[in-house]
Design brief:
The protein has a single domain, classed as Rossmann fold (3-Layer(aba) Sandwich), CATH 3.40.50. It is an alpha/beta fold and about 250 residues long. About 35% of the residues lie in helices and about 15% in strands. The strands form two sheets. It has a five-stranded parallel β-sheet with strand order 1-7-6-2-3, with helices on both faces. A two-stranded antiparallel ribbon has the order 4-5. Bound molecules: zinc ion (2 copies). The site of one zinc ion has 8 residues, from helix 3. One zinc ion binds next to helix 3.
Length: about 250
Amino acid sequence: MISLPKVRLRRLLNVMGDFLFPGNCPVCEGPPYQDPNTYVCEACLDEVAWVQPNGCKRCGLPMSGLGFEGLTCAGCRESDPCFHSGRCLFVLDRTAKKLIHEIKYHGVRGVLGDMAHWLDRTPGVREFLQGSVLVPVPLHRKRMRSRGFNQSSWIAHALRKEIGAGTEVVEVLERKRDTPTQTRLDRWARKANVKNAFALKPGTSFKGETPVVLIDDVFTTGATLDSCAQVLVESGIDKVNVLALGHG
Ligand SMILES: [Zn+2]
Ligand SMILES: [Zn+2]
């Protein structure tokens, strides 16, 4: 009897389920093939709180009100991150959490097949990524073994596929420590939790001129992305940007 880690088994069952009952929208569980061009139905895509480009200039956090472009949010002023600037695609509300959940815990890569539709709803993100090297935030090898995939790597490849020529995905970072989950930690505890948790993979050489964009699924306080950015800045990368799908 082959024993599979729980997450992998769930992923396998999901892939089989998708094969037998194709195309159900993971957000509203609406009927298959409601919208033949998208994985998530268009009505649900319209419900996602897509971030418009006038947020915090450091992390991309949406700020309500007019004309915040060029200002930084309270979180960034407090933690002064190493990265130059950031973007996120959507606010992590109930709908968006379902998208992340579907990718990360159910292993449904098909959700990312809607990337073109996501980028159409987030003006400026294509330009932000154009010509950059995309570096996914790595998982620790233990987590990688149990999950079977790195969702940040999936996201980076989905973005590259959509942005096209001039953008590449390079997996140069490794997670040295298997850090506990950050869900219940506050800003400072998160920072301490991921401090020195990342490093360049041995034997990696990385040139400094190309802008780098670190890619993650979720931006909460930015501690993980900041810790990764620090490694790249210290290794001589001139400009490190960050992008996460969800903010919250
Ligand atoms: Zn739907
Ligand atoms: Zn900010």
